[in-house]
Design brief:
six-stranded antiparallel β-sheet, about 240 residues, about 50% strand, mainly beta
Length: about 240
């Protein structure tokens, strides 16, 4: 019987990694984006965590990135008689965020909108046109210095002031800067919105959507206070997924 082993690689964007091992069963355990797997059986892909093949022997394997970004992949290669009853979906959820951080695709940013007399302060996560990525927003932490309501909506114009250089970063130390921008400004209070959580003065509110917000290129996720002349912050956490 051939040995069962999990192999972990960082596959370069649109590149490949060769695995010189024989097996008749493989399964993707974790990955940060879609991958292809080649062998004597041909080429399969795009594949995600939990997908694989059994009953087809190969004396070599080739992992290929299909995401367009550095892809951290763990693959199990074994004999066809190997039993695998683990639930890959749970592994993917737990390890996926760590893998994104390691790959440098997970980001955090804290726009700080100053108080402006007679106007509503806003914070925005902006995805520039031509970025080549979608922004997948997992959570936002909101805060202001008086009780207020925050109005969530999609914006189609970049906010006034770009604070990305000093107040946004990769969640991997030394990682590349995001393609997204965190922006702030002030204006009249929004009249169209899809969510409106209430804030208590000087108490942080954590917004954890049941499914993440997805900001496409040329648009932004924006939040306006419904009161004027008030300091406002929105701490975004997101990852950047190739379009």
């Amino acid at each position: 019987m051939k040995p069962a082993q999990i192999y972990t690689y960082t596959v370069p964007a649109n590149g490949s990694v060769s695995i010189a091992v024989e097996g008749s069963f493989f399964k993707i355990i974790t990955c940060t984006g879609p991958v292809s797997v080649s062998g004597d059986f041909g080429k399969l892909g795009p594949l995600l965590a939990g997908q694989g093949l059994k009953g087809r022997n190969s004396v070599r394997f080739m992992l290929g990135d299909m995401s367009g970004a550095a892809n951290v992949v763990s693959i199990l290669i074994a004999d066809d008689g190997f039993i695998d009853d683990r639930i890959s979906g749970e592994v993917s959820v737990i390890d996926g965020e760590k893998a994104r951080s390691i790959a440098g695709s997970l980001f955090i940013g804290l726009p700080l909108a100053p108080a402006v007399a007679g106007q509503s302060s806003y914070c925005q996560l902006w995805n520039p046109l031509g970025s080549g990525v979608n922004l997948v927003v997992n959570q936002v932490k909101l805060n202001c210095n008086i009780a207020s309501t925050v109005l969530f909506y999609w914006s189609m114009a970049a906010g006034n002031t770009d604070q990305t250089a000093n107040q946004a970063a990769s969640k991997k130390q030394g990682g590349a800067i995001p393609k997204a921008q965190i922006r702030v400004g002030s204006k009249a209070v929004a009249t169209s919105f899809f969510a409106a959580p209430n804030l208590v003065a000087n108490q942080e509110l954590l917004v954890l959507p049941r499914g993440p917000f997805v900001v496409v290129p040329g648009s932004g996720l924006q939040m306006d206070l419904n009161v004027v002349n008030t300091l406002f912050s929105a701490n975004f956490e997101w990852y950047e997924d190739p379009v």
